């Protein structure tokens, strides 16, 4: 197996998205606990590793699943579809990687919890996350082909990523934490939506019924606007509730967000091609990570 081709299939540009929720969660934990000790730094590192590992698993499974089904035959950047990765080899790698992430997750939970009930509850969440990452396009009835992808991303990469990472550190959750988790979840959903908006014409031909296909270009674009603006409105609500002036730094994102939404508006009206919209995938990943970074810095600076 060509290592460079394999690394390309893991889609490194999506790694920051997986890190965003963990970063924000640990900033929230820092605000509650104060300075981290050695154990808490290890938990932070392991949680980041598992989150990025799940993102890689989802990307590899997506490359394999769509490649096997012929959905990505038109995509020159999809390694399985283009024959750059042998299907059986990649399937083996996916299974081994899933086992590795599971083992890392078990170690993380063992370190975090003394309570067996919490251990097994989070173990169940971990197993569901691994299965969810694989089942998006793999298997006989992949949920990504039935307009369920956005829900899964919101739950696994938003709520579970943020709230789970926070609970591992503090064993405590508050309403304000949920607000942040929902905001991060919506930003993650926006990444998937841009991806599916780009592929809408080809997905129609291959009978892949994503939410973008079901709603159509106009409605999915409007929903995208709503979700992205709601995410930043929730972060504003969080800043007000926390009386945190440092979070005003997020106004720096107003211009790039506006510019990004303008491109989506052009796509809705047919003024730009799917290829031109594809550039916005890295843009929304960058906006999500920048939001998480500024949020985390603001939370830590506000610590008293």
From TrEMBL:
GO molecular function: 1,4-dihydroxy-2-naphthoate polyprenyltransferase activity
GO biological process, one term: vitamin K biosynthetic process
Predominant cellular place of this UniProt entry's protein: membrane
Record pathway: Quinol/quinone metabolism; menaquinone biosynthesis; menaquinol from 1,4-dihydroxy-2-naphthoate: step 1/2
GO cellular component: plasma membrane
Reaction(s) catalysed by this chain's protein: an all-trans-polyprenyl diphosphate + 1,4-dihydroxy-2-naphthoate + H(+) = a 2-demethylmenaquinol + CO2 + diphosphate
Localisation: Cell membrane; Membrane
Enzyme's top EC category: transferase
EC number of the protein: 2.5.1.74
Spans traversing the lipid bilayer: 15-35, 41-61, 94-113, 119-139, 151-169, 175-195, 223-241, 247-267, 279-299
Membrane topology: Multi-pass membrane protein
Keywords of the record: Cell membrane, Membrane, Menaquinone biosynthesis, Transferase, Transmembrane, Transmembrane helix
PANTHER family in UniProt: 1,4-DIHYDROXY-2-NAPHTHOATE OCTAPRENYLTRANSFERASE, UBIA PRENYLTRANSFERASE DOMAIN-CONTAINING PROTEIN 1
Function recorded in the entry: Conversion of 1,4-dihydroxy-2-naphthoate (DHNA) to demethylmenaquinone (DMK).
The family this protein is said to belong to: Belongs to the MenA family. Type 1 subfamily.
Identification of the protein by name: 1,4-dihydroxy-2-naphthoate octaprenyltransferase
Biological source species: Moraxella macacae 0408225
């Amino acid at each position: 197996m060509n290592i460079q081709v394999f690394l390309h299939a893991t889609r490194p540009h999506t790694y920051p998205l997986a890190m965003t929720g963990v970063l924000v969660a640990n900033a929230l934990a820092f605000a509650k606990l104060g300075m981290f000790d050695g154990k808490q730094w290890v938990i932070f590192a392991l949680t980041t590793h598992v989150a990025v590992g799940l993102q890689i698993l989802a990307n590899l499974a997506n490359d394999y699943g769509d490649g096997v089904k012929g959905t990505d035959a038109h995509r020159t950047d999809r390694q399985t579809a283009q024959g750059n990765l042998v299907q059986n080899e990649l399937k083996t790698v996916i299974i081994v990687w899933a086992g590795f992430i599971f083992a890392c997750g078990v170690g993380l939970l063992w370190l975090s919890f003394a309570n067996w009930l919490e251990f097994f509850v989070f173990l169940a969440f971990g197993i569901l996350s691994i299965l969810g990452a694989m089942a998006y396009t793999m298997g006989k009835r992949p949920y990504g082909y039935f307009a369920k992808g956005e829900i899964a991303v919101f739950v696994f990469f938003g709520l579970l990523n943020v709230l789970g990472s926070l609970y591992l550190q503090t064993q405590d959750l508050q309403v304000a934490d949920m607000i942040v988790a929902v905001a991060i979840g919506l930003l993650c959903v926006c990444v998937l939506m841009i991806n599916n908006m780009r592929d809408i014409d080809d997905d129609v031909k291959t009978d892949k019924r994503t939410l973008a296909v079901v709603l159509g270009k106009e409605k999915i674009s409007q929903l995208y606007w709503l979700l992205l603006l709601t995410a930043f409105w929730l972060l504003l609500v969080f800043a007000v509730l926390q009386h945190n002036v440092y979070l005003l730094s997020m106004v720096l994102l107003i211009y790039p967000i506006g510019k990004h939404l303008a491109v989506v508006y052009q796509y809705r009206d047919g003024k730009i091609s799917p290829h031109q919209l594809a550039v916005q995938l890295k843009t929304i990943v960058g906006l999500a990570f920048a939001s998480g970074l500024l949020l985390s810095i603001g939370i830590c600076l506000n610590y008293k």
